[in-house]
Amino acid sequence: MSTSRRTQAGWIAGAILIIAYAVIPVLWIVSLSFKEGDDITNNAFLPTVWSWENYRTVFASDLFTTALRNSVGMALIATTISVILATLAAYAVSRLNFPGKRLVLGVALAITVFPVIAIATPLFNLWRSIGLYDTWLGLIIPYLSYSLPLAVYVLAAFFREIPWEMEQAAQVDGATAWQAFRRVIVPLATPGVFTAAILTFFAVWNDFVFGITLTSSEAARPVPAALAFFQGASQFSQPTAPIAAAAVVVTIPVVVLVLLFQRKIVAGLTNGAVKG
Amino acid sequence: MAAIEMRNIVKEYGDGFKAVNDVSLDIADGEFMILVGPSGCGKSTLLRMIVGLEDITSGDMVIGGDRVNDKAPRDRNLSMVFQNYALYPHLTVFENIAFPLRLQKGIAEDEIRRRVREAAEMLELNEHLDRKPANLSGGQRQRVAMGRAIVRSVNAFLFDEPLSNLDAKLRGQMRTEISRMQRRLGTTTVYVTHDQTEAMTLGDRVAVLRRGFLQQVASPRELYEQPVNMFVAGFIGSPPMNFLPAVVDGDRLKLPLFSVGLPAAARGRVADGQLLIAGLRPDHFEDARLLDSAKRERGAVFRARVDVTEWLGDSQYAYIPFEAGEVTKQLAELAAELDSEALRTQLVVSIDAMSRLRENHEGEFWADTGRMHLFDPRTGENLTRDEAAAADLAQLEQEKLRERMGSPGTASDEPVARR
Amino acid sequence: MSTVEAPPRGPATARAPRRRIRLTDRARHERNLGWLLAGPAFIAMVAVTGYPILNALWLSMFDYRLTDPGGREFVGLGNYTTILTDGLFWQQFGVTSLITVVTVAAELVLGFALAMVMHRALYLRTALRTAILVPYGIITVVSAYAWAYAFSNTYGFVNGLFGLGEFDWFGGTWSALVTVCVAEIWKTTPFMSLLLLAGLAQIPDDYLEAAKVDGATAWQRVKRVILPNMKAAIMVALLFRTLDAFRIFDSIFIMTAGAQGTETLSFLAYRQTISRVMVGLGSAVSVILAILVVIIAVMFVKVFKTDLSQQRGER
User: Fold this and answer.
1) Average model confidence (pLDDT) for chain A?
2) Does chain B have fewer CB atoms within 10 Å around its N or its C terminus?
3) Which chain A residues are Cβ-neighbours of C1 within 8 angstroms?
4) What is the ipTM of this complex?
């Protein structure tokens, strides 16, 4: 399409506006995290003195470091299991004919629709009675069931784009169904598996509801929940700037993933939601 | 290598639709069989039932003497070239061709290498072995798919419209390449196509399918000259056969533009006043002015106004509109079934490229009525098929195949022919 | 994993006895493999959601305080009556609906503009898509903090920027709701715009060129060509976002903690069960919330008359 120079300039202006829209709040929290003393309440965007003080505070705090460890550990475990299960399930629903296929898809859809809080409160009761309350496993399990539908949809969309003939050719060439899956389909679906993993990680990393309802101590509390319970040096000063610093720390993995895999994430989101 | 026998093969889907209906077909060892028909006729389904990608509802599929109905594709020892080639995008050309060998346990790496190289050499792919399919041209991909098919020793090759994704020029080259390869390896081959030229040139025999029913199995020549019914007559040949209403009038036959004597073969099979459909191929016509008188005597001459002419350099077509009357609807239905659309009833005649006939002017035409066929409008049956001539043609085809198979130039257990 | 594969080997086993059985080997094998592969994920999804849902339904019919297990008493639909006759519930329902409508409407308009720019801008494309993913990927709690501090009259820059002096955004219902909506819109518009972008990308350029040749202005092209062809994408985006917005919890928790009449239904369910340990009442709120969400979903599908399963590509 031929676009005149002037309209293209308009689009560029729009693009710059959007970039500003997206990053200014992030820059603000970064800027806040570097403020110290009176700067914190200076009501200005930037600090007058840049200080690492807040970062020292949060990393010195057990509350934050254990929460970070909890978050990273649980997110990695839940993502890994979720993606493995989702890969198998997505292959089945997109490729194989078996009774109950629609049931699997229906349950997945129902879970994405169902309010998290409506699950969290009964789980709270259940976990308390069977001893999963305030444990890693107690969080990983709901993370798994809540991230599976997304992963299944994203992966099913990827599987559908692999031509049927791939498996058929493999079968004619002498492969069993399992060999066809392992030697032909899995290598082709690797980008999709990867994308699903990133999106799943985001979803788990973002969790707040399960984090605050199913934990009561540092034993399993993830970062978002810990942030809400974060206390400063004294009971009375609101630990604004340290919270900002902690917020920046947990945002870094997200930004890194986005920078590295921008294209894959966009493809995964749009495929999974519109077509998948 | 093996013969393929199909006995009353039926494919019925869950909704009761029968994609393939009671097809029985014998394919001899080493024969090149073409399955052809308009879209939706069941030709691909039949091929997929041979290879095992489609379940067989009833009937027997026998390959090399073994009933294979319940066997998985990988246990049937066949190889297939898919329409879109189905190359594995994550594997190199070498690994694509080697794939079937790697799945068979116990073939040494040396042996795999040797066989892949041989296949690649035959298809002139040696320089491309390390490339990925995405970096290949359409023709090269097609050859890789063939390489994967010929690398192991199989009972039969199956092709599912392998050339339809290539442009016209390349298609012509690959067609001769496939023919040459099949002749050299002598492997039984089943080839699905909707392309006239491929059907006519490649096969020893051609099976014409219509809505899941087998219409006629014969050599290309026999199909063209002695079709069993209107469907086969209309399907084979390009441009297609002209169909005109013909009314029996005593011992004459009246057609829209001319009338002829009732052919001997039809006598006794038709009643006076009966409406028939006459079939005349475009090349059964000629510009009457360019004809010597001896030839002129053997057919009918008529005058008609030319609507449009198409001059192609080596040939020329003239279009002559006519009224089909009662049979218009029937002809339109047949046209729709043959994947075309009958916008108007017109006669397509092939005339000499030298002819100076002009559009919108009247011309004088000659029709070779001796080669005309007459069809029953209700059943479509050919009333003038010459069984003796057909038998002769079948005999000829048999001899050709026997001659080819009788002198194999290669050891039969070797997957790729040595030069 | 070799147990997955158990097909007949020799022709002897494959031949005679199989003929009577309708299901061929291949089909039955496919069935088994299907459940073998989908089973674990299915169990993981159902086990953790199925039981809690049923449990919530059951508990919602009891007057049950966690601190007083002995006083547990069956009250039937009593909890529901209590909730539905309480003015506070309807106020929270109103707040939740208001936030949902405002944010989703703003996100749709803004998201469409974003999608148009992303689709058309030839330069800065990568930078644009990367930037847009930051709000999407960022933790909701972090986004809530960022905006809460930005609007705060103690720490924030917003008042300074707009010359509002000591205005307390979190002091009144409406201004507090504005901050919550801004935070929500900022965080979720990118998701909406990516879904819309996918729909936009599926419209062939030919359509727009044809419309141009036919004499359509830029606005007419958007209204008569682009929007009708994006109906499916818009519906999916709206549905997902509406359901999501209706469940708003994180931002409210962080930014207002439900003060100044900004409590939403999710927050109510949380407060009843976790803070006040009124398990029976809290479960009833959860059930009501779930029913409302289902009603919204059904309404969407009805209104757009597009089969969602078709949209989801179950062909």
Assistant:
1) 83
2) C
3) 178
4) 0.84
